[in-house]
Amino acid sequence: MSREELLREIDDMLELPSGTLRGPEVLAELENWDSMAVVTFIALADSAGSVTLSAKQIGHCETVSDLIALVRPA
Are 12 and 41 spatial neighbours (Cβ–Cβ below 8 Å)? Predict the structure, then answer.
């Protein structure tokens, strides 16, 4: 899954208009970033066939780009 596709999926997951997120957004400042979003992101990463993530790994992320880096390491 490309970076752009991941951004669109996270937009959808957080009920944001497509194209809202760019990467530098702080997760704690996103209204719908909560425990349900964490579980949904874990499922998204798993369905993309990329990695199996834990809530602890996601808990270390501060920005949307940090999340993407878990799924698409540089």
Answer: no
In CATH, 3-71 is 1.10.1200.10: yes
DSSP state of 54: -
Which residues does 68 contact at the CB level (< 8 Å), separation at least 6? 3, 6, 7, 23
Burial of 50 (0-12, 13-18, 19+ CB in 10 A): middle
**pTM, rounded to two decimals:** 0.92
Domain ranges of the chain: 3-71
How does pLDDT run along the chain (74 residues), one tens digit per residue?
899 999 999 999 999 999 999 999 999 999 999 999 999 999 999 987 668 999 999 999 999 999 999 998 76
